[in-house]
Amino acid sequence: MAAWGERLAGVRGVLLDISGVLYDSGEGGGRPIAGSVEAVARLKRSGLRVRFCTNESQKSRGRLVGELRRLGFDVSEAEVTAPPPAACRLLQERGLRPHLLVHDEVRSEFDQIDTSNPNCVVIADAGEHFSYRNMNRAFQVLMGLADPVLISLGKGRYYKETSGLMLDVGGYMKALEYACGVEAEVVGKPSPEFFRSALRELGVEAHQAVMIGDDIVGDVGGAQRCGMRALQVRTGKFRPSDEHHPEVKADGYVDNLAEAVDLLLLHADK
Amino acid sequence: MAAWGERLAGVRGVLLDISGVLYDSGEGGGRPIAGSVEAVARLKRSGLRVRFCTNESQKSRGRLVGELRRLGFDVSEAEVTAPPPAACRLLQERGLRPHLLVHDEVRSEFDQIDTSNPNCVVIADAGEHFSYRNMNRAFQVLMGLADPVLISLGKGRYYKETSGLMLDVGGYMKALEYACGVEAEVVGKPSPEFFRSALRELGVEAHQAVMIGDDIVGDVGGAQRCGMRALQVRTGKFRPSDEHHPEVKADGYVDNLAEAVDLLLLHADK
Fold first, then answer.
1. Chain B nearest C-alpha distance from A218 (Å)
2. Out of 3.40.50.150, 3.40.50.1000, 2.120.10.70, 2.60.34.30, which CATH number does the structure's domain A4-82+189-267 have?
3. Between residues 121 and 160 of chain B, which touch chain A (CB distance below 8 Å)?
């Protein structure tokens, strides 16, 4: 592999995944990953552009940012690109009225959306709300539509909470796809459109940006397909086999966000 | 299409799907499909061999047969081929100790199986037991195994209850496959091994047998791949689009089991 100086040359902006990079979510608000609070602060002081790009769809952005701030992170709602606002734009553009299979915490993000007489289904990481009854209701709505539309906020396989690995929305998306014979539209990483909107908000070109995440497919592969560079951290849901993934090779693997920031401060184009 | 006489020539044995063909399951034991009680009786009197071949994995065979008998059907446990006993044979042959994600009703079918220190996961149509907590536990067991084995009792997309269409085990199988990066082994229709064991129990060769079911893929396609003929009934989960399925074409479509039996009594090789 090329030297870090070469790999990070010309980087002017950084997209940071949140869960598994900044903190592990969980009971009581989760806990920060060692060194990440300081790493974010150093990054922000460095002159590099910084934005947070998350597939979090179980909490509202307000709640997420509140939790992160309580853990000591310097982050505001305006700095976070997350699937619910992107989904709302898509629903409004296409005149879609969703049946929502989402966590109560995130329902308020859809307050401005007409949900009467649904003509599509939106699923997010609903956690405990992924009951058989709720899944069956979403299934029945889709089966009742002549042209079923399923929108999934991300398609993650799993994430890491303080209590262990947890099923993410992706599996439930696959369940509905299979049962209904449809293909979901994904709003969130690794959708290129989602990365491009985060890049616009970051204000740099793809070749000037690096994504830092714990998901080899959703973060690293997705960002690379948009022309960005991407580093995988060995925290969160990282597993050693990720470094030998058959399809995706990160531009670098680092132990944690703190190491990534050390390298960026040395080599990026501040 | 050829005349019925040609299509049913040489048939000596009949495999009957249960749910959606004999009855629609549901609250209070479900209700028989019009004409099916008499159709089963006429078929049994005809001299044709008859066996029931079901993917039912939410109830024990004893409970299922009890419900059917209360509805008036002439059926005994010994006449039913169902996934749980086949799964038990497979587990014992391979020394597998399952973590069971199954309905309480069917747990007793696994009484003779060692479930300590699980080295595989078995999922069945668990209905309300497909909670997030239970799915996550099955996921965590699989992720903890060096060589994860997932066994699914059937892979149906959905079935019809008296209250409407209901998600079957297939979607949940897909969810775990996706989240864990594994491919499930299916015990039940449309697995060729399962059809072959039903044929052995029926006591006729594949070319002498006809399957009657409401599932164009699981019943019709699966039986045809084993060299059997197969009819689809327009009851249960049947949908008009099934008659134009891109991959599977039944040897005939009939309004219900009663019509199938009328035709068999006229044309089969009794």
1. 13
2. 3.40.50.1000
3. 126-133, 135-136, 139-140, 143, 157-158
